[in-house]
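Fold it.
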Amino acid sequence: MGGPLITAFKTALVGAPLGAGAFAVWTRNCKFVPVSPSDPIFQSASYLKNNPLKNPATQDMCVRRVPLKDIKPQLLEKEGKLAEAFCAGVWGGLGYWYQRRYLAKKYQNTTTTAHQLWERSQLQNSTYEVGTQITDHFEVVSKTPNAITVRCGDSPLKTGLRDSDGLFEMAVDVKPEEGVAEFKLKSVFYKGLTKSDSKPMPEHVEWAHRQYTKLWMESAIRNVEL
């Protein structure tokens, strides 16, 4: 997990192109906040089913606020469209470009994964209904007008318990009284197959994951802004 994640982050920076200093400036409005133990994600059907041993989780949530005046008006006209566009920006944007190519080389084929979303045009135009599978590594397990959650960690073709498992939620909260939309990327990773007393990610991989999350956030915001 650590190797591909760190490589994807570094490669995406080069492709942007961004140095460390420029990346810090570009993502300065991304803020990480704690995920509450009472967060609904821990009571979701997918989490309860796939973490039956109640193993500890690596978790974080990245928040980015955008003025409503800067968002494409058509995305605010119908409930659910902003969350869909935000999700499409994550998977169809620059931030996911390297990982998408990496997974395509390994897993894309005309038989077992032909039904999944692979091409950028597919990722940018999907409405991400429950059951949608993305590049043989993500599957939509929940969708509301404000949030889309995918299961991650392994191929969606593996429907049972997994050694590496997790949930990734893309959510938006429109706050007219404040004149902003609050975008959120929430991650929860855990081991589902065997009992574990420790979190699944070492500190350096957690750090890389947070940087990658900020890259995804800014890439996704591009898809909803004017």
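The chain has seven helices and seven strands.
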